[in-house]
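Journal club prep — side note

Before the paper discussion, L.F. wants everyone to see what a predicted structure for a comparable chain looks like in token form. Sequence:
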Amino acid sequence: MTELLLVRHGRPESGMFDPPLDSVGRAQAGALGRHLADEQITAVVCSSLRRARETASIAFQGHGLEPVPMDGLREWGLPAESMKYVALEHLGVDAPQTRAIAEGRFMDFVPERVDVPSFRAAVRESFETILAEHADGRIAVVCHGGTINAYLSQLVSIPDVFWFHPDYASVSRVERKQGGRVVIRSLNETHHLLVESE
């Protein structure tokens, strides 16, 4: 059996291309690492974007595993220099992106220049590669909200590429059963972040 932990990166700096994590994001990655410290992680794969690489390094440093970057896990399949990252927390409540997320209009959040079929295909291929390379074990895959959506939507035949909003440093779990079927076990686990803030 193979279990994949789909981890969204921690909160990054805003207003720049390929940003690093900000102080909140580093704390989120640390909380995630403490939460998963007793789980037997056998490999760590991450998006090649900086915010995912940093989250993977912080969260899984105690497991002694070197994160393996994979371009196919990048957000929206876009190159790092093509889009400045702006965290929703830095936008006003009336910003179109903030309102779309608050109202559950998740597809409105997908940038117009994204080639959705190509993005979904690249994400599917990336996860199929990860599963092919790991016959069993528990693999952490640190990537992005859009990437997580694109993979999970295909598992359950949801037509929208973006259908829920994973929180920063959240965990969603899928499991490959005997016979090869991949099923969702959980979505958007954030208990570790709530505990840390209490």
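L.F.'s comment for the group: Residues 2-197 form a domain with the Rossmann fold fold (CATH 3.40.50.1240). Keep this in mind when we get to the figures.
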